[in-house]
Amino acid sequence: MSPLVVRRIWFLSALLLLSLAFAFFWSVLRAALRPTAIYTGALLLTLVLALALFNARKKLPFLPLLRAATWLQIHIYAGWFCLVLFLLHIQFRLPGGAFEITLALVFAIVVLSGFFGLYLSRQLPSRMARSGEPLLYERIPAFRLQIQKEVEALVREAERETESSTLGNFYVEYLRDFFSSRAHVFTALGNPDRKWHALLAETKGLDRYLNERERAIASEIRDWIETKQNLDFQDASQRLLKLWLFVHIPFTYSLIILGVVHGIVAMLHVGRW
Predict the structure, then answer these.
(1) Are 210 and 166 in contact (CB under 8 A)?
(2) pLDDT confidence of 126, banded at 50, 70, 90?
(3) What is residue 209's three-state secondary structure?
(4) Using N-to-C axis directions, what is the helix angle for 36-59 and 245-269, rounded to 10°?
(5) How many CB atoms lie under 10 A from the CB of residue 228?
(6) What are the strands, taking DSSP E only, across the chain?
(7) What is the separation of C-alpha 22 from the centre of its chain, rounded to a whole number of angstroms?
């Protein structure tokens, strides 16, 4: 069994035991008529604040703290524990009132975006590695433009050498949009090879109308189609890995602000302040 599997089993076991222990403690406090909502709410807010520190830890890699991978594991399992705490806090009932519903919706967005980010971080890096050489995100637009220019040069070469517009017409009708456009960000979640295979099939089917020189150029264009498809997948994957944070992080800080306000109102309501 690999060390990664062992570590995950250990973390999951610890999370399960902690959740069961806290659920038992919560039931004892509730039976004793203690204000469990205050305890669970305070602990939940504290944990959300602690989880928000993970983003700060990533921006300060030089600090002699735990490794980023360890912080990430703690962040994931503490996030699961937050979900358990939230369910205990609302006593497994739908919240009532506009403010409580808003707070619950923000919490749900934070949790769901966290799960989505976890899925992306587990799935996309390995798929990106299989799609070709890793590319710097900032250089992808330049690579896209370079590929388009190379293909258009091949098409012009075919027209000049063979005095035939067959490849040129095919490029305008089927390939120009593919080579000039940027892939949609969510193509990283689907099957990126489907469009590539369709274009390759169309180009291969054109061979029967081409002479020997044009077929050689069409073969080079098929290589560029594969290169462009890999570039599109790298682009879409890297964008998606960045964009989900623009949901998760702002809503996390919104949750903290709403949670603090909610806590102050709750303490004033029960007369603790």
Answers:
(1) yes
(2) confident
(3) helix
(4) 150
(5) 24
(6) none
(7) 31
Question: What is the sign, positive or negative, of the torsion defined by CA atoms of 25, 28, 34, 37?
Answer: positive
CA distances (Å), origin 165, targets 10, 215, 217: 65, 13, 13
Contact call for residues 117 and 248 (beta carbons, < 8 A): yes
Say what the pLDDT of residue 218 is.
Answer: 92
Asked whether the whole model's pTM tops 0.90, one would answer no
pLDDT digits over 146-172, tens only? Answer: 999 999 999 999 999 888 889 999 999
Residue with tokens 């928000």: 52
What is the torsion angle, in degrees rounded to the nearest 10, for the CA atoms of residue 204, residue 210, residue 216 and residue 217?
-90
Mean pLDDT of the chain: 83
User: Could you tell me which of 159, 180, 184 has the C-alpha nearest to residue 170?
Assistant: 159
CB 236 within 8 A of CB 186: yes
Report the alpha-carbon distance of residue 23 to residue 99 in Å, rounded: 26
- pLDDT tens per residue, range 42-76: 888 888 888 887 766 666 655 556 666 677 777 88
Kindly tell me the sign of the dihedral angle through the C-alpha atoms of 57, 59, 65, 66.
positive
CA-closest candidate to residue 240, choices 150, 141, 116, 144: 116
Q: What are the b/e assignments for 144-183, b being 16+ CB within 10 Å?
A: beebbebbbebbeebbeebeeebbeebbeeebeebbeeeb
105 token code pair: 């919706």
